[in-house]
Amino acid sequence: MARSTSKDAQALFNSLRSAYAATPTSLKIIDLYVGFAVFTALIQVVYMAIVGSFPFNSFLSGVLSCVGTAVLAVCLRIQVNKENKEFKDLPPERAFADFVLCNLVLHLVIMNFLG
Amino acid sequence: MQLVSACTKTLLDSRGKAAAMEKFSISILLIISLLPFLCSSFSQESPTDRRILVLLDDFSLKSSHSIFFSSLKSRGFDLDFKLADDPKLALQRYGQYLYDGLVLFSPSVERFGVALDLAAVLDFVDSGHDLIVAADASASDLIKSIATECGVDFDEDPSALVIDHKTFAVSEIEGDHTLIAADDFIQSDVILGKTKIEAPVLFKGIAHSINGANGLALKVLSASPSAYSANPSSKLSSPPSLTGSTISLVSVMQARNNARIMITGSLDMFSNRCFRSGVQNAESAIKYDKSGNEQFVAELTKWIFHERGHLKAVNVRHHKLGETDEPAMYRIKDDLEFYVEIYEWSGKSWEPYVANDAQVQFYMMSPYVLKTLSTDQKGLYHTTFKVPDVYGVFQFKVEYERLGYTSLSLSKQIPVRPFRHNEYERFITTAFPYYGASFATMAGFFIFSFVYLYNK
């Protein structure tokens, strides 16, 4: 039984890998960016757990910048993905422009809150 | 014209004289009205010659205790001798006290003269004046109740005297061991003076003990462990209630308003006979030519009448380190300096008080900083400390209570504010990773947007 579940897990993982390889490159770039942002946020949380939350506003602004930009990137991915029926009529340039503007506002807020 | 001018001149002269007369009489009136204020009690500002009322049972005490009274007079006191039941007795008139101290050498008085009673004596003490009460074997209930109000309980048995079969004074006449030679003094240079009293003190009278609930009364002269209080002429039917060192022969009390009261069970202790006689302790058999009574009584009355051990603390100042004027508010983590001057009344003038244990607290519901003040030997005490990292309304508190000294209790309020938003350090070191992460995210976003746009 254990062997079969591990074999199933392996089969699942291989099918995921092959499916993912089929996605367009632009989406893969977005995924890479999201991964980078989440990784940076995790580093900050681990650092806060070690050192303590003394300038709490700085901690919040750092984590918010990473999480916020990750969320915006995910929204971009949803809107740009051609397999998504919901956003069929939305031009991808419009989606990218929204992404850039929202990131600008986000980083303005972050710089203010960073102290 | 000239006539008119001459007339006006003479008129003016006479009016001038009248005006001068008026001015003169007004100034006389003013001076007279100020006189009562010049003879006030021991106030910090004018502790000059003081009037003491001495109440006696009969005037023979004036001669039998003449050495004591003349020593008081030579120290500058005005003594007013009256019989205790004199109907014209008055401690105060029109709300002002006529005397600054009261000496009750009238143990057997049942009722004072009309204007004086237990409540009046207690009011006298409550208003800051000093009191000496001496009882003896004939002590009345009135004297005993005055003592009880001051925290000292005399033996209730009216015929009991202090008897000590081991440390009595050897004498030819008195064989019942009621004249005792006591030398168990309190250890205090303030109360009894710097010179050690070598000879024991002769005492013949009734015993008292300090009420256990009273924290302000002190035993200045205690009886030896072999003393007890009982009737010398009858056999003891039950063990005596007061024995040993709990018997106090002379007690003092310093009230919270710094009035000082001395209570003793022996009027003979002040008499010329005891002052002049030699004393030999039956136990130790050392013979002294002169008893310690005169020195003991003189030093103790100096303490009672505030010629020693009366402190005042003035001139509380504080300022930030490096500045000279007093700010209205401090900021957390400021450095500040605190100054206070403490003086002791020496009987004639305010001398600088020198001690190394005065402390100041920086207090807000509990002391955040407690520092010992260092002195420059001239009465100025100062210290430096850093304001704690807590903001609020603090007080500089100096609380000084030592045996035999008046208590000092000063406080000065000062608020402490937190940092203003521009008084923090500009870049906090522990937050550098967060700064770095934010900038890294911005750079990442910039690079990503290029890569995404120009990706074919």
TrEMBL record, chain A:
<comment type="function">
    <text>Subunit of the oligosaccharyl transferase (OST) complex that catalyzes the initial transfer of a defined glycan (Glc(3)Man(9)GlcNAc(2) in eukaryotes) from the lipid carrier dolichol-pyrophosphate to an asparagine residue within an Asn-X-Ser/Thr consensus motif in nascent polypeptide chains, the first step in protein N-glycosylation. N-glycosylation occurs cotranslationally and the complex associates with the Sec61 complex at the channel-forming translocon complex that mediates protein translocation across the endoplasmic reticulum (ER). All subunits are required for a maximal enzyme activity.</text>
</comment>
<keyword id="KW-1133">Transmembrane helix</keyword>
<dbReference type="GO" id="GO:0008250">
    <property type="term" value="C:oligosaccharyltransferase complex"/>
</dbReference>
<feature type="transmembrane region" description="Helical">
    <location>
        <begin position="96"/>
        <end position="114"/>
    </location>
</feature>
<comment type="subunit">
    <text>Component of the oligosaccharyltransferase (OST) complex.</text>
</comment>
<keyword id="KW-0812">Transmembrane</keyword>
<protein>
    <recommendedName>
        <fullName>Dolichyl-diphosphooligosaccharide--protein glycosyltransferase subunit DAD1</fullName>
    </recommendedName>
</protein>
<dbReference type="GO" id="GO:0006487">
    <property type="term" value="P:protein N-linked glycosylation"/>
</dbReference>
<feature type="transmembrane region" description="Helical">
    <location>
        <begin position="32"/>
        <end position="50"/>
    </location>
</feature>
<keyword id="KW-0256">Endoplasmic reticulum</keyword>
<dbReference type="InterPro" id="IPR003038">
    <property type="entry name" value="DAD/Ost2"/>
</dbReference>
<feature type="transmembrane region" description="Helical">
    <location>
        <begin position="56"/>
        <end position="76"/>
    </location>
</feature>
<keyword id="KW-0053">Apoptosis</keyword>
<keyword id="KW-0472">Membrane</keyword>
<comment type="pathway">
    <text>Protein modification; protein glycosylation.</text>
</comment>
<dbReference type="Pfam" id="PF02109">
    <property type="entry name" value="DAD"/>
</dbReference>
<comment type="similarity">
    <text>Belongs to the DAD/OST2 family.</text>
</comment>
Automatic annotation (TrEMBL), chain B:
<dbReference type="InterPro" id="IPR055457">
    <property type="entry name" value="OST48_N"/>
</dbReference>
<comment type="similarity">
    <text>Belongs to the DDOST 48 kDa subunit family.</text>
</comment>
<dbReference type="InterPro" id="IPR005013">
    <property type="entry name" value="DDOST_48_kDa_subunit"/>
</dbReference>
<protein>
    <recommendedName>
        <fullName>Dolichyl-diphosphooligosaccharide--protein glycosyltransferase 48 kDa subunit</fullName>
    </recommendedName>
</protein>
<dbReference type="Pfam" id="PF03345">
    <property type="entry name" value="OST48_N"/>
</dbReference>
<feature type="domain" description="OST48 N-terminal">
    <location>
        <begin position="51"/>
        <end position="304"/>
    </location>
</feature>
<comment type="function">
    <text>Subunit of the oligosaccharyl transferase (OST) complex that catalyzes the initial transfer of a defined glycan (Glc(3)Man(9)GlcNAc(2) in eukaryotes) from the lipid carrier dolichol-pyrophosphate to an asparagine residue within an Asn-X-Ser/Thr consensus motif in nascent polypeptide chains, the first step in protein N-glycosylation. N-glycosylation occurs cotranslationally and the complex associates with the Sec61 complex at the channel-forming translocon complex that mediates protein translocation across the endoplasmic reticulum (ER).</text>
</comment>
<keyword id="KW-0472">Membrane</keyword>
<keyword id="KW-0256">Endoplasmic reticulum</keyword>
<comment type="subunit">
    <text>Component of the oligosaccharyltransferase (OST) complex.</text>
</comment>
<keyword id="KW-1133">Transmembrane helix</keyword>
<dbReference type="Pfam" id="PF23358">
    <property type="entry name" value="OST48_MD"/>
</dbReference>
<dbReference type="InterPro" id="IPR055459">
    <property type="entry name" value="OST48_MD"/>
</dbReference>
<keyword id="KW-0812">Transmembrane</keyword>
<feature type="domain" description="OST48 middle">
    <location>
        <begin position="318"/>
        <end position="456"/>
    </location>
</feature>
<feature type="transmembrane region" description="Helical">
    <location>
        <begin position="432"/>
        <end position="454"/>
    </location>
</feature>
<comment type="pathway">
    <text>Protein modification; protein glycosylation.</text>
</comment>
